[in-house]
Every structure is written in structure tokens, then in C-alpha cells.
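Rotation project, supervised by the postdoc (A.L.). Task for the rotation student: set up a whole-complex structure prediction and record inputs and outputs verbatim in this book. Inputs entered:
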Amino acid sequence: MHQFIINFARWVQGTHLGVGILESTWAFPYVQLTHFTGLSIFIGTNLALDLRMMGIGNKNQTAAQLSDSVFAWNWVGFVIGITGGFMLFSTAALTYVANPSFDVKLSMLIPSALIVHIFNQQKVRTWGQTPETPGIAKLAGLVELLLWLSVVSAAVLIPYFAAEP
Amino acid sequence: MPLRARESGIAAWVLPLIFAAIVVFPSAAFPHHGTVGYDFTKTITLHGTATSFDWVNPHCLLHMDVKDAGSVQRWTLEMSPPSMLSRKGWTKDSFRPGDDVTIDTHPARNGIPIGISSGNSYVLRAVVNGKALPVQ
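Outputs recorded:
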């Protein structure tokens, strides 16, 4: 499995996509923009729902209604974020897979956060029908919020664990 | 239900939360790693031989061998990204392996052979085989 990941990373960073973005004079900031825009929409809508589940926010709208109204934006943001993220990854894939912060983010934090997120998105239909959410919803919202903050922290730390200056 | 009274609790909750996030994650403001590792009050001049020039994002890197009292030290100098350096007239061939290079840099605070030689608002002097690269 480990060798497969290394081989995949080597292949990705040798593709026209990876080399093109890496050496481009103008494309790189737009690729960053794609990743940051997508993840802002995705994590922004996640945190809005987490906070509402925790009982923080506008009580005129139930948590279930809020979840419904941001649902499409939520997953559109996810797809944009993943697309931009993969393009950034392709510029230096071997460096990224050897980076402990990237490894923790991709192999542990994002899968855990995604599982809790999908679970919460399902459960909020029953937990979030009243203005005040039950205690279990508050706990679930807090867990997801902390997981996404951990994902962001790991992402921010990636350059600080990089082997290059 | 006195909804207005309950909503007044939002500001009391969310504002400290935002403030805490800014304090805990100050580096989230930067797209890449910061430059606090470099000592901008110092500018040193390196003279040596270019070994490679990485014309890459998020920043270009010049690798060079610097002879110092008999021993050779491999330096790595961080620079602006290709988008900014190309506007100054630099290219991926501005440094080629074997080129004689004299270049100014702000060295790393911790003494390792790494420096930064250009950023948003400055390009330090670089002379390749006797010819200065454009800085304006």
C-alpha cells in the first residue's frame, strides 16, 4: 500500500497537470483560489450547521431547515475544494505524502470529519425539528466543529513540516 | 417566547469564538508558510556556483555551493514565485548549473544555510557571470 501511494504520487507530479501548475507563471494562484474557495464554502456551511446544532444562531430557523437550505452549497463546495486540493497536491505529490501533517490530515482527520458530517446531516432531520436542539445534537455538533478545526490546523501546518525551506 | 432576548446571546457566544480562532490560528492568514524564520535586519552576500534553479510555485529556489575557508556549503535561497520574477524579467534560465553567482540574501535566524532573496516589495542584488539580474 505504501509503495502504491509513492508510485501514484510520483506519477501524479510527473503529469502535464502537475508540472504545468508547478512551473506556471499565472495558474498557481488561481488553483489556490479554487481550493480555498471550495473549502470555505464547504467548511463554512458545515460550521454554520454545527453551531446551530449546538444551539448557537438564529432560532427562527430549525437546524433541519438550515441543513436543507445549505445542503447543495455544502456539497458543491466539497467538490470544488477537492478539485483544487488535488491540483495543488499534483505540483509536489511526493513531498506531500512524506509530510506528517498532510498524512494526518488526509488519512485520519478528513475521513473522521466527513463521517461525522454525513452522520450529522442525516441525524439533524430528527434532532433538528424544534427551535431548541437536544443535548445529543449539541454534542454531535461540537464534535464535528472540533474535527473541522483540526483539519484546518493540520492543513495550515503542512508548510511548517515540509522538507524544503 | 422572547426571541430577541435569546438572540442577544449570539454575539456573546460567537464573537469570543471568532476572536479565539484568530488568536489560535494566526498563521491561517497566510497562504503559505510565513517569513518570520528570516532575519530581515541582516543582509549577507554569498559568492559561489549555482547547482540548480527551481522555477516553481509557491516560490522559486536557487541552490548554490558556497566555498568558505576550504569547505563547501550548499545554500538554498527562497525567492518570489515565477509570476512575480517573470515580471522583473527573470526566467527559468536566469541561473544555470555552473554559473558564477554573487547574490545578497536575508539569512535564516537559526543559522542554517537558507536565505530569502526576494519578496512582495523587494528583489535583492544578484549577479550571474558578471551580469546583474534586473531588480526593478
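Student's summary: Chain A is about 80% helix and 0% strand.
Supervisor addendum: Chain A has one domain: 2-161.
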